[in-house]
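Hi everyone,

Forwarding the result from last night's run.
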Amino acid sequence: MASWIRAARLLKFALNDSREAFIPCFSSLSRCPRAKARGYCGPWLDCQGLSFLGWRFWLEFRAGDNAHMLWIKAFHVVFIASWFAGLFYLPRIFVNLAQVPPDSHAERERLLVMARKLYRFSGLLAVVAIVLGLWLWLGYRIGMGPGSGWMHVKLALVVAVGFYHFQCGRLLHDFEQFSNRRSERWLRVFNESSVLLFTAIVVLVVVKPF
């Protein structure tokens, strides 16, 4: 029944563009200890200056049950792990490409096809993982406030992972154009660096050392 009342209030806001339809939805929120503990209360909660309906729906979802956040976090972990799985294997294909003899065209083309498909699929996984991560950070305020220095380092590492993904695309282009100048040994070191990035991110999220 409560969900129907909330939906009716949001519909009234959509039709009338009135704050009266939205603020009552949070009238009891400021008296909720769990909401205060999770940082959902504050002067911004009255949505002053936020006239776009999408923001209102988003904030309404934010103030909902904690189960929503757990679902988002679970899928964020799944897509992050899947993204890194692609980053672990893609440079290994580059190592194999560097070992292919010049006259083995069929094997080289087969590896290039595998690398192209994996690079594109990993890119899609990366987009979903980053969007879910931003949702948790900005929507549920995870990693904000005192004692959240680990989040700043994690964000810097995520940028580094994005750059690593971009470098994989450049290496793939070089192999396609027969212009690769990287040695097999360099590619092996490049392949292992993604493991270090993944390890650092996991330690920061789980241990939260600072």
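The first helix runs from residue 2 to 16.

Cheers,
N.
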